[in-house]
Design a protein that fits this description.
Elements (H helix, E strand, L loop, with lengths): L8 E5 L9 H8 L1 H28 L4 H21 L24 E5 L13 H4 L1 H28 L4 H21 L13
Antiparallel strand pairs: 1-2
Helix pairs in contact: 2-3, 5-6
Length: 197
């Protein structure tokens, strides 16, 4: 994939590396209300994806309001997870604006989806199967990410700074995960790259 044609799902993080040393001890707890909302939005996303399946099979399109609502669930999730993993200090906003493009409400996180005008009618039937190699890679990446979170925890406790390499790895894993979910979740027909970039 060339840099001239970026993948239709983009995710980034723009936080400061300095984190107060005490934050890793309590930030996961402060994130609980946000994570409850993420859980509820995940259920909503499953329902909306179920509807999208039929709209794509019968019309080759996802209605724009439906697409924007699904995009919002991913954006909200990334904001909450980046906070829960103490990648940032600022509490994420309770923002529920359905929009495929990032709304800029949270300057630390960016999640943008390119709306497809037409989609393949048959791909919803096999995307889950085509995504299996990515799921296998994600299992390995998730295990590695757990160790990186633990290392980041101690690094912040000791130095007050999240090591850039560790943070970039976690952001890359989450980016990869969202791209796979966007593909399997019918937001794009473009097969995701095996890349954390």
């Amino acid at each position: 994939m060339s840099l001239a044609t970026p993948y239709p799902t983009q995710l980034d993080f723009r936080g400061e590396r300095e984190i107060a040393r005490w934050r890793p001890l309590v930030q996961w707890f402060l994130a609980i209300p946000q994570l409850f909302i993420v859980y509820a939005l995940g259920i909503l996303r499953g329902f909306l994806t179920f509807i999208a399946f039929f709209t794509v099979v019968f019309t080759r399109r996802i209605p724009r309001p439906l697409f924007d609502a699904i995009a919002m669930t991913f954006r909200y999730e990334w904001r909450a997870v980046s906070y829960a993993l103490f990648l940032r200090e600022d509490y994420p906003p309770f923002d529920f604006q359905p929009n495929a493009a990032d709304d800029g409400v949270d300057p630390h996180t960016v999640v943008t989806f390119s709306y497809p005008e037409k989609m393949s009618r048959w791909q919803p039937l096999v995307k889950w199967l085509l995504a299996i190699p990515h799921y296998l890679v994600l299992v390995g990446l998730s295990i590695a990410a757990m160790f990186v979170v633990i290392a980041g925890f101690f690094a912040v406790l000791i130095t007050g700074e999240y090591p850039l390499g560790l943070r970039d790895f976690l952001v890359g894993v989450y980016r990869y995960n969202v791209r796979v979910q966007a593909y399997a979740g019918l937001l794009t027909d473009q097969y995701p790259p095996f890349s954390l970039k």
